[in-house]
Amino acid sequence: MADLLADLGNSRLKWAERAPGRWTHSAVVHRDRDMTDVLQEAWDGLEKPTRVLYVSVAAEANARALESWVEKKWGAPIQRLHAQPRQLGVINTYRDPTTLGADRWAALIGARGMTARACVVANCGTAVTVDALSADGVFAGGVIVAGLHLLRRTLGEGTAGIRALEGDDSSTLARATADGVAAGALFGLAGAIERIVHEHERALDVEVELFMTGGDAALLMSRLSRPAVHVPDLVLKGLARVETG
């Protein structure tokens, strides 16, 4: 039997099945869908897990639906991870450590398991978080900006003349409104990530490794001018570290 690790975000549900010599991970978009229906489609065919460990930044109703579905389907023990003041070599310096997003906390724990160097974790989902972790394991802080979908949607909702949300984002020399919105959001967000990483390096006075995760990480990485490591299951890897203690 395997353990089931899950990351319930605002738009996507990600999960991994973990057992000795086995690691498989998958994801599904749940935005604007009934969570019970999503879970039935995504998890009904999974084997009963030994236990379920998850993080959630989604609406509480979705988290409750996940716990209820697991209980009814499997009756397996389920635990929700929250940020801690200190855990597995990571020190939380948030003014109120419990208010740090659990997905950010798990991603930092995952990154700490991959490197002993100072690093930055960019989690690119509905929101983009760019968090700094010192070589001593101190979470020094981070920023939160709107992700690609939010940037494009907000521009469309906040203006009278821009309604296109889908376009060609391959060039900044856009000659159509939809292309201008798509490219502006992509290149603008990639540039923001690079600038924030630079500011983190300046504040920490050290060159950092950059880890990218989240649904839009690969796309944003393609527009960066600095090296980055793509770890699509970084939050789940952090949960795996917590699960093994």
Key words describing this protein structure:
Nucleotidyltransferase, domain 5; 5-stranded mixed β-sheet; 245 residues; 7 helices; alpha/beta; 7-stranded mixed β-sheet
Q: Could you please describe the fold and organization of this structure?
A:
The protein has 245 residues and is α/β, with parallel strands linked by helices. Strand 1 and strand 2 form a beta hairpin. 36% of the residues lie in helices and 26% in strands. The model has no long low-confidence stretch (mean pLDDT 94). The strands form two sheets. A seven-stranded mixed β-sheet has the order 6-7-10-9-8-11-12, with helices on both faces. It has a five-stranded mixed β-sheet with strand order 3-2-1-4-5, with helices on both faces. It has two domains: 78 residues, ATPase, nucleotide binding domain (Nucleotidyltransferase, domain 5, 2-Layer Sandwich), CATH 3.30.420.40; 129 residues, Nucleotidyltransferase, domain 5 (2-Layer Sandwich), CATH 3.30.420.
End-to-end separation: 19 Å
Sheet with most strands: 7 strands, mixed
CATH superfamily annotation of the largest domain:
ATPase, nucleotide binding domain
Structural class: alpha/beta
What percent of residues are in strands? 25-35%
Which fold name is given in CATH as the topology of the largest domain?
Nucleotidyltransferase, domain 5
